[in-house]
């Protein structure tokens, strides 16, 4: 459930009409709903209510705006980061180091050092070379790095191939068969303290079965590791629970059902539970608001050329992803709809948001909203075609604020310098 609804025929974010944001901030613009973010976070808390101890480590990569992190951090969220940049964002948002887990296959020594200096809950280690590097960095500093090893359970997450991570062929984690050996090595290394086990099998999962299989393997591994003498007090279950991108009856499982799977598979181990949801918290808490520039009547189809483009929201071009596109001014019931190819201004055909979107007749200057754009939207944007990164706005009840400003052209160009031989 989200807080983007029509009221008096105008799409609102909570109590704010999107027409007002478009008028005051301009388009294209990302708009986030604080109430929706809060609601989604609370739903995960309810899903883990049974656990004696848990931490919801929001996956910062999904939407890393500092205001979003601050809102979630103030609700008690931990953070899952994959770079020192994300770590810095989380800390800037006031999240203490002991609530931050550091994931990712390519942590550099500098990143390890900075995270250890700043404080970190745990490193989710993804390979033996990384483990050795971390041991060297931590012991060189006279520090101890708490770790979980990310184990690859070799299950099929049944999601888009670009975002499946739990198969043996993927670059992530250590094969289950080698896990005991790697833990034994970790226990011997200076500067390393084993605290848990980590898994993450993919993103936009719409079926709980892969989770059940993976987590059952995690439970077996935890028992085996304890027999080997390791203290395993935390289980990091990863993220990945999918969201409904289409408003039909095929909604993915709910967080509460996901929480039950965790309980049934690892609940008896007495571990502190960590989860890393990103999309499920932020995805449906945001829309991309855009204005029609032209309606172009082609030979066999009509194009809606909007002011947002693939550089602002790359998911359709990159994954063939579907985002509902809706008019901001609601069409009267029963009004005829017509197919449009909704495209951006960028000079390649991949800059197509949807072919044949059924929409009421629209004209230049009309506003449309791309739904479910709160996760992997702004964070994946680029300045391709020298289009400035678009602003982000947070709505909270009747108020709203710009939480990332649109850069001026001067600001964009000022980062570049000419070599002195020119
Ligand atoms: N934890 C780890 C270790 C991850 O790699 C990810 C996502 C998450 C948590 C959060 O997954 P979520 O709950 O958001 O599904 N750009 C793609 C999604 C990439 C996800 C990468 N890893 C997209 O737009 O669909």
UniProtKB/TrEMBL annotation:
GO terms for molecular function: diaminopimelate decarboxylase activity; pyridoxal phosphate binding. Substrate binds at residues 279, 315, 319, 348, 376. Residues 36-282 form the Orn/DAP/Arg decarboxylase 2 N-terminal domain. Pyridoxal 5'-phosphate binds at residues 240, 276-279, 376. The modification N6-(pyridoxal phosphate)lysine is found at residue 61. The active site is at residue 347. Its cofactor is pyridoxal 5'-phosphate. PROSITE patterns: ODR_DC_2_1, ODR_DC_2_2. Keywords: Amino-acid biosynthesis, Decarboxylase, Lyase, Lysine biosynthesis, Pyridoxal phosphate. It holds the Pfam family Orn_DAP_Arg_deC. GO terms for biological process: lysine biosynthetic process via diaminopimelate. It catalyses: meso-2,6-diaminopimelate + H(+) = L-lysine + CO2. Pathway: Amino-acid biosynthesis; L-lysine biosynthesis via DAP pathway; L-lysine from DL-2,6-diaminopimelate: step 1/1. Residues 30-374 form the Orn/DAP/Arg decarboxylase 2 C-terminal domain. Belongs to the Orn/Lys/Arg decarboxylase class-II family. LysA subfamily. Specifically catalyzes the decarboxylation of meso-diaminopimelate (meso-DAP) to L-lysine. PANTHER family: DIAMINOPIMELATE DECARBOXYLASE, GROUP IV DECARBOXYLASE. Homodimer. This is Diaminopimelate decarboxylase. It comes from Paracoccus jeotgali.
């Amino acid at each position: 459930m989200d807080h983007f609804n029509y009221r008096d025929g105008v799409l609102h974010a909570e109590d704010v009409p999107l027409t007002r944001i478009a008028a005051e901030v301009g388009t294209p613009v990302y708009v986030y709903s604080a109430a929706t973010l809060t609601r989604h976070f609370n739903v995960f808390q309810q899903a883990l209510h049974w656990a004696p101890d848990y931490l919801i480590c929001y996956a910062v990569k999904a939407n890393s705006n500092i205001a979003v992190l601050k809102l979630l951090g103030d609700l008690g969220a931990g953070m899952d980061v994959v770079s020192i940049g994300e770590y810095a964002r989380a800390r800037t948002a006031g999240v203490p180091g002991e609530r931050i887990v550091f994931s990712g296959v390519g942590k550099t020594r500098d990143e390890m050092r900075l995270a250890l200096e700043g404080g970190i809950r745990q490193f989710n280690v993804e390979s033996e070379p990384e483990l050795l590097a971390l041991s060297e960095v931590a012991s060189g500093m006279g520090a101890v790095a708490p770790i979980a090893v990310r184990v690859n359970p070799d299950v099929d997450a049944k999601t888009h191939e670009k975002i499946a991570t739990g198969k043996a062929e993927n670059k992530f984690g250590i094969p289950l068969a080698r896990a005991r050996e790697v833990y034994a090595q970790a226990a011997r290394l200076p500067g390393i303290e084993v605290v848990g086990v980590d898994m993450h099998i993919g993103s936009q999962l719409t079926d709980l079965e892969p989770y059940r299989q993976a987590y059952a393997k995690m439970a077996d591994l935890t028992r085996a590791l304890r027999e080997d003498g390791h203290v395993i007090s935390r289980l990091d279950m990863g993220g990945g629970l999918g969201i409904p991108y289409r408003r039909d009856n095929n909604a993915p499982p709910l967080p509460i059902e996901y929480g039950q799977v965790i309980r049934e598979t690892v609940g008896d181990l007495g571990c502190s539970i960590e989860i890393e949801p990103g999309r499920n918290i932020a995805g449906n808490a945001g829309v991309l608001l855009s204005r029609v520039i032209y309606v172009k009547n082609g030979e066999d189809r009509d194009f809606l050329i909007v002011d947002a483009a693939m550089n602002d929201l790359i998911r359709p071009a990159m994954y063939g992803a579907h985002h509902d596109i809706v008019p901001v001014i609601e069409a009267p019931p029963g009004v005829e709809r017509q197919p449009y190819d909704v495209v951006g201004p960028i000079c390649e055909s991949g800059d197509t948001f949807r072919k044949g979107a059924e929409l009421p007749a629209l004209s230049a200057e009309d506003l449309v909203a791309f739904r479910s754009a709160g996760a992997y939207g702004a964070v994946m944007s680029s300045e391709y075609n020298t289009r400035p990164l678009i602003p982000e706005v947070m709505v909270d009840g009747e108020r709203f604020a710009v939480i990332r400003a649109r850069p001026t052209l001067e600001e964009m160009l000022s980062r570049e310098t000419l070599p002195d031989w020119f």
